[in-house]
Design a protein that fits this description.
Elements lengths: L11 H4 L9 H21 L8 H14 L2 E7 L7 E5 L6 H8 L3 E5 L8 H7 L3 E3 L7 H13 L3 E4 L17 H9 L3 E10 L16 H10 L3 E7 L11 H8 L12 E4 L1
Parallel strand pairs: 1-7, 2-5, 2-6, 3-4, 3-5
Antiparallel strand pairs: 1-8, 6-7
Helix pairs in contact: 2-3, 2-5, 2-8, 3-4, 6-7, 7-9
Length: 269
Amino acid sequence: MSAWLPTAPCTPEACVQAPGRIAAVPRAVLRLTVVLLLLLTGIALTPFGARIPASLVRRWCRWIVRAAGVRVRITGAAAPTGGLLLVANHISWLDIPLLAAVRPARMLAKTEVRHWPVAGALAARGGTLFIDRDRLRALPGTVARITGALREGAAVAAFPEGSTWCGRAQGTFRRAVFQAALDAGVPVQPVRIGYRLSDGRATTAPAYVGDDTLLASLWRVVTARGLIAEVEVRNPVPPSAGPDRRTLARAAQPPDTTAPAWTHTVLVA
């Protein structure tokens, strides 16, 4: 197993709970339809990506999450402009539009994502940087491409755990991607993501783990009632915060994804 191919012990059978109160099937189908329409709209507009204001991209990403029936709470300060490495814990496919709602960025994704229906085409046309996790020898080249994008002033978003976790537990941030931030001399923006029900209980219903299918995870989300996505934007970590990528990764690692201490809310969608 390569250093770029960590695994999580989370599985749908052991970790993923029912979504609690269930939305009526017609409502769930409507939610799913609107999500797909928004994704198709995004695919149609990707040729004009450079001309679309970042504020509109962020709004579109929030619309996707809201269309799925999920309320969004983003706390903390706005992410800085210029070259930036956004990193977050990874629970669900929802994490991707949630990160983009913080700041539009080029996503770092496994090559398998390219073959996802609809979302794969959107990712490819949106400038996603794909990683072949089965080829360790390809890793230096991937880090070099990330470094180049950061030096050009782009934001790159990554999930350094390398695998999705259910949200009750979390993985360790892998170090490789942080080398790109050091080489480019740009800050790291840690983001912590969690999911709760309207009564305040943490939930694993949105998780996309193990041998789960994207369709099954989508259906759990659109059938859930009272689902809330909580996104904490923490203080940026400057590249000078650590002499090496190991220290930088440790500084960006969320201490706990299950019981966030929220500060001031800057957005409720």
